[in-house]
What does this fold into?
Amino acid sequence: MSSMFPRISRSRALQGAAAGFVAFGLLLWWLLPLGEEPPGGAIRFSTGSRGGVYAEYGNQLSDEFAKDMPDLKVELQTSAGSQDNVARVASGEADFAIAAADAVETYALDHPSEASRLRGVARLYDDYVQLIVPPGSDIRSVADLKGKRVAVGLPKSGVRLIADRVLEAAGIDPDKDITALPYGINDASRLGRTFDAFFWSGGLPTSGLKTLAENESFKFVPIDSSLITELHTQGAAMRYYRPTNIPESTYDVQEGYSVPTIAVSNLLITRKDLDPRLTEWLTRTVLRSRDKIGAEVHSAQLVDLRTAIYTSPLQLHEGARNYYRSVKP
It folds into this structure.
């Protein structure tokens, strides 16, 4: 035998094979726990308005839950958004939901007893405040909205919550200084006819605005960082707002420029009484399916194991905590 290929001892070959099996086993365990039957039963998952990222992401997650847990029945619920979702989970009307951190904190401050039942599963992705106007509008700042017809989001939505706060930080009383209209993402095409400006808070890109950008022109109104500084003086829930930019080319209408605005993180939430094993499986599916769902819902690409554990203001659910401990390096 050629000296170029040294003999490998039987014991060394067995050690190499064993190491290979261990690595393969760990890979399988990451994808699906070996020797464990998937949980079944039924859950109610509250998402958001049709055309928004919550609803799109919820639909995709439901499909992945069905693959990993075929005996689990998932009832998807549309909703007004974050405020609605937090209240539904706390009351037991829903078992899981997506909600922005500011809405969770606001509910906890207003309803401390009910909020004590809430738990976090994962930090997901960020919502971006998107304030749009017709291309020929003279509105160039939030302060210019005074006297205008402004779509501020559906009642009980996260959009309504943050729109009211942004307006107040700019010195505008939403009840007196504008004509506040309760329209959501499904009404974006009314821009320039029913209302002069439109608030939306959602992941990037939001399909409702992407479709609008493909069919009609509009422009973004920047939200200056000075407004965020003012927001931070207004209460504990405001600490979740941070300055960011809508990246250039997010929508066709941007023509290569980024837009200053506000971001707030989204959480997957549940209640502390939900079965830990079921919650652990759901947490695993959320992280495992990130890339697949991200091909359809861009925001899902931002779900990250390293940041998913940070579900402030909520404690982690026991099942979610078990999952994160199991995959800790």
Observations:
- The radius of gyration is 23 Å.
